[in-house]
Amino acid sequence: MTDRKTEGEKREGFKKFKDMELPRNVVVGNEAIEQVGKTCDKLELKKEALIVCDPNTKKVAGERVADTLSEHDYEISIEEISGANQEEVDKISEKVGDETGFLLGVGGGRSIDVAKYSSHLAGIPFVSIPTAASHDGIASGRASIERNGSKVSVAAQSPLAMIADTGIIAEAPDRLLAAGCGDIIANATAVKDWELAKRLRNDEFSHYAANLSEMTSELLLKNIDNIKPGLEESAWQVVKALVSSSVAMSIAGSSRPASGSEHKFSHSLDEIAEEPALHGEQCGVGTIIMKYLQGGDWKKIKNSLEAVDAPSTARGLEVTEEEVIEALIHAPEIRPERYTILGSTKMNREAAEEAAKETGVI
Q1: Cβ-count burial of 41 within 10 angstroms (0-12 exposed, 13-18 middle, 19+ buried)?
Q2: Domains recognised in the chain with CATH numbers
């Protein structure tokens, strides 16, 4: 006798649910900053807004953003921050009034992270206006905030819109664009770690998100020789890749498509090094080592980083060899629930030294 389920029973048995937040508008290109007012009008945002920036990015773009919004009859206030920490978030949150319609983060990682997290706490929209292409947080729904001396990744407001002026980004220090390349290249090991967690622990996995993330990294690696400092075309390519990486995270509902063992290494180095390097720089070096541990083509990663003048060694990061080794040993302690090639226990010193030496990192 055949057991046949009714349509209602079949529907009742399906329990999956997904809530994805993606940017509604992504504006990238020459003089894109002049489109801020027009974009906000299109989104029908309230006419009172708060711009978050630091003293440098205020001069580079913050004042121009305020001007173009004012031309569209927005009431604007500008708040400067000095870092991406809980104290600055609290300060911005206090400035958000009942009439504040949305926040704009104008700058690099610090301004954008503080703005997106503050907007999340206030329950109002967030608009991302990066002045550098140094990491994939410019369009993601997570923020890196320092608390009690340690950086933590927190859920935040995904940008309702992202407006990236390639002219401004091309004029940013060369080091920042190279760091952005490192953050994208890191997807190559992050996805492999995610696949490993799926196989060994049956972790939740999205093939769509993984494929998009991996493709983003592969395309950049394929075109790495075309990434040159000071060129708007290069800024265009890197920004698009960073947005694509952010979208992959939104599809997955987590940072797994773009954050694996190489990010654990970077966060560990943040805690251990006396003077850590940029996030994307550290992730790039971490990717070299993790690709070696995964049995992949780590030399390709190393050569690609060097092609854009990104660090590929401890000396390039301006950290000590001992700090690299200690960061590798303690990396599994960072987000231990996130399974990677590093496993869930400390790497011993001999293995850490071997991996760092074999890849030429130390």
Answers
A1: middle
A2: 25-172 (3.40.50.1970), 175-358 (1.20.1090.10)
